[in-house]
Amino acid sequence: MTKPRRQLKIQELVKEYPIETQEELVNSLRNDGYDVTQATVSRDIKELGLIKIPGDNNTSRYAMPNEPIVRHSDGRLKRLFRTSVLSIDYSENLIIVKTMTGEAMGVASAIDNSNWPEIIGTIGGDDNILVIVKPKKATTTIVNRFNELFKE
User: Fold this and answer.
1) What is the pLDDT of residue 73?
2) Are 82 and 145 within one domain?
């Protein structure tokens, strides 16, 4: 089957089912007659810009990037920091948050939805997030708050 058809099927699957892992997506595609590998699905996820959003029972699932995300409390942010964030570093008013592969967009969304007034916004990639802070003097405060999320 063609790549466009396969990617359309992936979009349908993530809209219809709470798919949490690439393995689940591979199995769903195979059940629908697509002969795919995990590597192919991984490339499709990246090309489609799929993100991870909160699912039921403290899980996360794949979603289209334009799917509305319900605002959540700092509880979600704490959980994501404990399970997805690997490291935090900063320079001036910029913070870099390194995450597990595929987790950055979900963590970036949670940071944005935390509505911390010092954070102007985030840019999330696959495994890195750029957090922009204003004013510059608030950067260490935000880094300390992020570090506290690991401990709670």
Assistant:
1) 53
2) yes
Q: Residue 25: give the domain boundaries.
A: 3-63
What are the structure tokens assigned to 144, written together? 């300390």
Residue 85 lies in a domain: yes
In angstroms, the CA 142 to CA 148 distance is: 10
CA distances from 74 to 79, 92, 104, 113 (A): 9, 25, 17, 9
Quickly state the pLDDT bin for 152 (edges 50, 70, 90).
Answer: low
pTM of the model: 0.55
3-state secondary structure of 4: helix
Report the C-alpha gap between 122 and 108 in whole angstroms: 6
Cβ 19 vs Cβ 13: under 8 Å: yes
